[in-house]
């Protein structure tokens, strides 16, 4: 059986690899092409989201940064954020000089706690970033009631692209949203992000800033194109060998050492510093990969619902409704902290590498938390969940059969 890695290019299929290889050999098309791929990708995503203004760039962190700037957020302002998330999406608040304020989560939904939100809103609150964790929609109408009409609601649709909440596309309910096409997300262009914003003037401001932003470098573009190709070589041989001495592990080790696998979070970001090349424009080749994946969005999300249902039946407490209109980017399990590493090991013995979003507050080492404006105890539920969370894969790289094998291996272990 082919191994399943939750984070290593989980959305990549044969057509994506073929496209990446083709594009790798067309360096003259990397930055811009005559088909205007970046504009076409923006149009595609915009049309899917009821015609909302869409602006593409290198990542969601850049998208949030430029959006905050365009809204005029700065010193003296407060931005409410989930702490059960990743530091890269908190950093932009610090980059514009505003204060991040972290809201706790509900232990069952992993989404923001409305009770805690009531305590965190002040007259300095200008923006709230709302994450639909693992795809489950936040009740945005209740958030609006609490924050009032003047606070901008920005949806973080990293986990929830393609979902629908009460008849409305997720990403079109708030004032704006930020999307990522990072490697482990709903669809992947390896790197990439977009702002979706209702206010045309804000979209234009962002476009102007981007027009003078650096290009995504040739080296980074090459590394991004190589990523799905390399994983397609490493994955089938990852467990071929003796014990831990396997061909795939050796290949992966060398590729990482050579720096050709790319890095998602730069060292300076752990110190809340902005990498000098961010924000950057989206290269047209990554828009091409993104468009190819976007065409498969609904199929991928249907698949995720089916796989999540398999886990729920025997393992989970996270409810799965197959008639629901949202996705399940990953299936979350909560286990006693002392059992967690055993469960990873059992999964690994069966050739599954599970996920750990978000095993630390803001997915950050303790040494970064103070810089991020987070004090231990600020969000106790999120801290409790962080100690217990394990994520099971639901992407297209796991078949129903594999999900059943994983379920069987983990049953009785929780
Ligand atoms: C919930 C969430 N939002 C946003 C991001 C940022 O996406 P990007 O890597 O495109 O900046 C991440 C990254 O891991 C994330 O986990």
UniProtKB/TrEMBL annotation:
Keywords: Aminotransferase, Pyridoxal phosphate, Transferase. One of its GO terms (biological process) is polysaccharide biosynthetic process. The modification N6-(pyridoxal phosphate)lysine is found at residue 185. It holds the Pfam family DegT_DnrJ_EryC1. The active site is at 185 (proton acceptor). GO terms for molecular function: pyridoxal phosphate binding; transaminase activity. Belongs to the DegT/DnrJ/EryC1 family. This is DegT/DnrJ/EryC1/StrS family aminotransferase. It comes from Candidatus Dojkabacteria bacterium.
